[in-house]
Amino acid sequence: MDRFTSMSVFVAVVEKGSFVAAAEAMKISPTMVGKHISALEHALKTKLLIRTTRRQGLTEAGQLYYQHSRRIVDDIAKVETLVHSLKTTPTGRLKITAPYAFGNHILIPLISQFLALYPEINIEIELADRKVNLIEEGFDFAFRIGEIIDERLVAKALPDYEMVLAATPEYLKKHGTPDTPEALRHHNCLGYNQHQSEKLWQSIGITPNEGESLPSRLVINSGEGARQAALMNFTIVLQSKVILEQDLLNGRLVRVLPELSLPSYPMHMVYLPQKEMPLKTEAFISFMMEKLWQRLMTLSHL
């Protein structure tokens, strides 16, 4: 006989006080109750119950077995409830990765809203400017800037990651406001790193003459560092709207050459395909495709 079923029957016999009452609770016959108790006693090689015509009681072994059986039956019931809840209520853990700037400025505030809506979901976020391996590193979602080349992933398109040219009013007052891309040659134009910087500036129409380099006296490998340099009235910065949004809104920075078409990069939320998608995953996709789209579209008006 199934050991767990026999254990459940034994617990019912102890708590209901008789085979008949236990049979009714377990929806089996009193004879079958007796078989389950006999099977347990045979397997344990000891008596669990003392029964007379007037009462029943527990042996010392029976008392010990009951205490532990009660705990096991409760634990199994809790586990079954938790598993059932996975199919009825979004619950569980999600592991997410995103680039630093996007994560800090855009994603984390939205994650906080999501968690408030779904109190049974927990989230772990790793911010990193690298492409993680979702399978090997156990991530549920990744937010990526750039083309998606891994065909194994489901990729949900988001608004493009847009760039903007900006400087402080004080910088422009001192050095003048450029009215063409070529005029930027005469300004401090902040670089990210020498190779990427030149490619980026060339993409907006500044092509160095042979043997020349662009006027980047300062090269920084951090978007936030580039922002700080611009705020110190040192440079014209070409940086993402995500990073410069608040500075543009409050006037600490102003756009330079706003009519110029600047590079932008495709952005996606990616995850692995699943035959049966958990509710927590469905909830996250639905929330982000609505709220994240709305949030990113506000940047397009800067």
Quick structural summary:
Keywords: DNA-binding, Transcription, Transcription regulation. This protein is of the alpha+beta class. It has helices at residues 3-16, 19-26, 30-44, 60-88, 100-117, 134-137, 169-175, 194-202, 223-231, 241-249, 279-299, and strands at residues 49-51, 56-58, 92-98, 121-127, 141-145, 154-167, 237-240, 254-255, 264-271.
Report what the structure shows:
The structure is a single chain. With 302 residues, this protein is α+β, with helices and mostly antiparallel strands. The protein folds into 3 domains: 3-87, Arc Repressor Mutant, subunit A, CATH 1.10.10; 92-160 and 265-299, D-Maltodextrin-Binding Protein, domain 2 (3-Layer(aba) Sandwich); 161-264, Periplasmic binding protein-like II (D-Maltodextrin-Binding Protein, domain 2, 3-Layer(aba) Sandwich), CATH 3.40.190. It has helices spanning 3-16, 19-26, 30-44, 60-88, 100-117, 134-137, 169-175, 194-202, 223-231, 241-249, 279-299; strands at 49-51, 56-58, 92-98, 121-127, 141-145, 154-167, 237-240, 254-255, 264-271. Helix 2 packs across helix 3 (30-44). The radius of gyration is 33 Å and the shape is rod-shaped.
